[in-house]
Amino acid sequence: MTEISWARSATRELKRARALVQQGVSQDESALREALFAIDRACIWLLQGYLRNAPDIPPELKAKTYEKLPFPELLELAARFAPIDASQKSDILMFRGLRGRAQYDGQVPPKPRVQEFLALVDSLATLLTGQATSPTGRDAEELGDQHPKAYVATWPPDRGVRLKMPDGFRHLFNGEQIDWPIKLVDESGRSYAVIYNRRENFIFTTQLMPWVRDRDPHPGDQIVITAIDVGERVYSIALQAVGRSEEFGDEAGLYVGMLKDRLGREATRRKYFVAPGDLVTHVFICGITGTGKTVLGKALVEECVLKGIPCILVDLKGDITSLAFPAYPLTEKHFEELVDVAHEDRRRGTAQAAVERYRQAYEEFEIPDERLSSLAEKASVAVFTPRLGPAIPLAVTPFGISSSILELASLDRVEADKMVGALAGAFVKSLFPEKKMGRLSPQKTLLETAVWYALENGESLDGLRGLQTLAELVSDPPFTHVGTMPVDSFLSANKRNELAARLTIWSTGEQRLWYTGVPLDVRLLLSRPEGSGTPVTIINVSHLSIDDQMYVIAALAYAIFNWARSLGDAAGEPRLVFFLDEVGGGGGKLAFYPSRPQDPPSKSGIDLLLRQGRAFGICCILATQNPGQVDYMGLSNCRTWIIGQLQTERDRKKVREGFSTADLIFSRIEDRLASLSDREFLIKRREGEPVFLVERWLLSYHKTLTEQQLRGINVPELEKWFRNLVITAA
Questions:
Q1: Regarding beta strands 202-204 and 150-154, do their DSSP bridges make them parallel or antiparallel, or are they unpaired?
Q2: Are 267 and 694 in contact (CB under 8 A)?
Q3: pTM of model > 0.85
Q4: Ranked by mean pLDDT, which of 83-87, 137-141, 149-153, 369-373 comes out on top?
Q5: Residue 655: is its pLDDT beyond 80?
Q6: Residues 65, 190: one domain?
Q7: Structural domain tally of the chain?
C-alpha cells in the first residue's frame, strides 16, 4: 500500500464509521458493529502504513511484512517511533477487546463507547498522517480566524457528562455531521480524545475523567478551551478556579504529596501543598506502624529546610537521623555508601535496586534533580547525643537555665512553677530509676523548694557546682518549711540525706557525662559556620532509657520556649520547627504527652509549646502510632491533623474526639479512613475541607541508624565548629 493509499484508506474507513455511528442513533447494533470493524481496520492500516512509509523508520523495518504480526506487537513497534504514549496504547488495546467481543460473542458496545473508539483512532490518524479525516476540516480552518480562539464553559456538566459550550464554538464545525471527534490537550501535554455534539453544543466528558480527577473542578469553575489547530480539531484545555483559593505552589508551599480524588479512591496528578503559616498552629500526625507517618513528618521538615526554616528534631529510635543522608546524587556509587547489607558482595546490587526505586518514585511525584540537589546544599544537619554519646555531645544540666526561669517568673509565675516542677520531676525520676514517680512526690517537691531558694538568693545552679549546691540545700535546708509544713515533718532527715547522696552520685562516674558537651542552649544548637545553610539540629536519644528521654525532652522543650520568647512576637511567621515522633511513646505512663491523669515530666514542656509557642513562631509537628494514648485536649491546639490507618477502636475514638475540636464532623470521612493504604493519609488543615493524599518520596535516604552508624555522621566542618563549644564536667 503506497504512502497515499494507506492514509486515504484509513480516512475512508473512518468516514464510513462516522456515518454508521449516526445510523446507530437508536442503538442499531448492526450499524454500530460495522462501525466498530471499520474503525479497527483504519487503526491497523494506520499502524502498518506508518511503519512502511514514515521517514524515520529504518529501511529493514519498512520492508517487513506486517499483515500477520499480532496487533499488540504491531502497536508496540509503531510506538517506538511515533509519539504514542502508554495511555493511548492502553486505550487502543481496550477498544480492540470490545471489537473482539462484538465479533466472537455478539456483544456490541453502546454508541458512546464506539464514538470514543472513533475519536481515539481519528486522533491517531492525525498523529501518524498529519491529515484530518473530517470532510470539512479545511473549511473549519478557514473559519478559525473569524471566531474567538478561546471558549469558556462553566463546570459542572449537564447530566454529569455534557459540558455545555458557548454558542460561538459550534460555528467551527460545518456540515450535517452531529458528533465530532476532537482532541483536548492539557498543560502537561497529555491529550484526551473526546466527542463534541454540534447539534446540542456540548462536549462529552466521559473521556475527560482522568483530567477531572487530577484538577478537581468545583461548581462555578471555568473550563477554558483554546483553539490550537481548528482544522485538525485540536484544542487546549485548562481550569480556571473561581471564588476559591488555589493550593499553594512550589514557591510558597510545602509539597507533601499527591492528592487523591474527592472519594479518596484514585490518585491524581495534583500536588498538595501545606502553607508554611499552617505550621505555626501545629501539626499532628497519627497512623499505625508502617503507614509512613514518620516519612511524612520528615517530608515536612525537608520542605521547611528548603524554605530556610530552622528545625530541631528529637530522634527516639534512630530513623529521624537519616535526614543527614541526602539522596543526591542519584548514583550507584553514592547509594553504595547508604544501603545496609548483610554481605558486602550484595552491596552493589542493592544500591542499583535502590537507585532505580528512588528514580521511579521521583518521576511519579514529579521531583526534579534540582530539588534533590537543593536540599543537599541547603540542609546543615548536626546530630547531637546527650550523655557523651557517639555524635556531638550535648550537656543537659537540670537547672542550667537559671536566668530564663527567673525571667519567666517575672512574667508568669504559674508557668515558671510548671517549668521548675517538670524539670525537678524529670531529674528526680532519673535519680531514682527503680522507683515509681508517685512515690517520689515528696523528694520532687523538696527539690523544687531548694531550686527556688537558690534562684531567689542568687546562687548558681549551673554545672556540677550547681548540683553540689542542691545536695547541700536538701541535706541541710536553710529554709524551715516546705509550703506550710516543717521540713522534718515533710521529709525525714534520712530521706533527705538519701536524696543528697543520689545528687552526689550523679556528679560522679558515668553520670558526670551529662555535664559534658555543647550546652543545651538553642542559640548554640542552631549556630553554624557562615554560609552553611538551614540549621537542622537532631537530638538523638535512641541510646537512652525512657526516663532519661523524658528528662531530655522536658529540658529541651523549655529551652526552645525560652529562646523563642526572648526573640519576641513572630507575627504569625514560622521561626522554628520542633518535630517529635512517637509522642505517644509506649502508652500510659510511658507516653511523652499522655491523657490525664498521667503527668510525666515531659508533658508540661510540650504543652507549653502547643499553647503559647505559636506567638513566638514555634511550629510543633507531633506524630504517634497510638493516638489513644495522647492528650487530645492538648492536641486541640493542633489545627492541622494528618491521619493514616488506625488500628484500634480506642484510637479511632480518640481521633474522633480530637477531630471534633478541629471543627470537623468525623462521621463524614470515618468510612473512607478505614480503607486507607500505606502512605495514604487524610489531611485537615485549619481552613478548608479534608482531603486525601499519597505522601511524596523523601529527598533523603530513609533508614534506621545503629549507634555505631552515628559515629562520624557529622561533617568535619560542623564537628570542628561544635567541638569548640563543648563544656566539660567541672
A1: unpaired
A2: yes
A3: no
A4: 369-373
A5: no
A6: no
A7: 4
